[in-house]
Design brief:
By secondary structure, the protein is α+β, with helices and mostly antiparallel strands. The protein has 10 helices and 11 strands.
């Protein structure tokens, strides 16, 4: 196996497989030689420099990231951080190895997920982000590739981007033009270099839309205002569609401002009308389904109408067997009583 790094790190971690790689790092599966049967995910940050001052800056920033990861250890759905290594002026993070598969793989194997499943995933990720944002950390790279689903119906959010940002912005160790986001999941303010806390909300919304539609962001179109056009691609209730659409608004100022706001709307029980699929046909209303009270009123009004008609016929002398023996003035008085007319 050619991993590009020493097979054993720090005399303890035996690299056995490449789990994944990106523009900033490679992640390996490693056995712990000091404890039988224990495995870790080892992330190697792929930069190189012969400038000692740059290496010193990178080391300082890396240690700052270590402090951040230690603070995130308190959440059970974020991989635990165990330590770090510096070897040959390269830096490695030692983290919990999560057995499972990515949300990307789940979507591709099933084409799309059902709405209740997406709501469940959203709820779990929102609770993770509540914790992350409370620690003044913006993830910056939420996407299906960074969400691990486990066999016991749990999930983990991985790959926090602070190290990547530190290295790219504060040193010359990365190649020019490196971006700290993933195209399609990042909103415009983040692509311009000004991520907000609700930039994570946008990425989370796009992730949920991909799960519902089976389409990656690049396959969706934008309207003239830059808003994502997606509702016609999914079987989704108006209730959830409205929440997701607000999560992915183009302008961050009219997007959800905090993850707490999203949670509040997600916890609002959908009504019978707004939980109906946008493609479903509304059930026909039985216009003959009338209450007992309404039926009684209908009989009363019908009887009064019949009496009015009989009164008119009587006044006009049109009832069967009745002769017109009354003077015209008496007929006029009767009509005046019935219709309240001034004749």
């Amino acid at each position: 196996m050619n991993t590009g790094i020493s097979k054993i790190l720090g005399g303890r971690y035996e690299i056995v497989a490449l789990l994944g790689e990106g523009g900033f790092s490679r992640t390996y599966l490693a056995n712990d030689l000091s404890v039988s049967g224990v495995q870790y995910a080892v992330k190697h940050f792929t930069f190189s420099s012969t400038n000692q001052s740059e290496v010193a800056i990178a080391k300082q920033l890396f240690q700052r990231e270590v402090t951040i990861l230690k603070n995130l250890n308190k959440h059970p759905q974020i991989p635990q951080f165990f330590g770090y290594l510096e070897e040959n002026q390269e830096f490695y993070l030692i983290q919990q190895y999560i057995q499972g598969h990515t949300l990307t793989k789940e979507i591709k194997s099933r084409k799309r997920l059902e709405e209740p499943e997406v709501i469940k995933i959203l709820d779990k990720l929102i609770n993770i982000l509540l914790f992350v944002h409370s620690n003044n950390i913006i993830h910056r790279d939420i996407k299906p590739d960074n969400i691990i689903l486990t066999p016991n119906d749990n999930l983990f959010l991985i790959d926090f981007g602070a190290v990547k940002e530190f290295i790219a912005k504060n040193t010359r160790l990365q190649k020019p033009g490196t971006q700290i986001f993933t195209q399609g999941y990042a909103p415009v303010e983040q692509m311009r270099g000004y991520p907000q806390f609700n930039s994570d909300i946008y990425a989370l919304g796009m992730t949920a839309i991909e799960a519902l539609t089976g389409l990656e962001p690049q396959a969706l179109t934008l309207d003239s205002f830059g808003e994502v056009v997606w509702r016609d691609q999914a079987e989704v209730s108006d209730w959830l569609a409205n929440i997701l659409s607000k999560m992915v608004r183009y302008e961050f100022s009219i997007r959800y401002q905090s993850i707490e706001e999203v949670l509040k709307d997600l916890n609002t029980t959908p009504t019978a009308t707004n939980f109906v699929s946008t493609k479903a046909i509304a059930p026909a209303v039985n216009i003959y389904q009338i209450s007992h009270e309404s039926t009684s009123n209908l009989i009363l009004y019908s009887l009064m109408g019949v009496l009015f008609i009989l009164a008119i016929l009587y006044a006009a002398g049109l009832l069967p067997g009745k002769r017109d023996t009354e003077p015209k003035r008496q007929q006029s008085l009767l009509l005046e009583k019935v219709f309240n007319l001034d004749i």
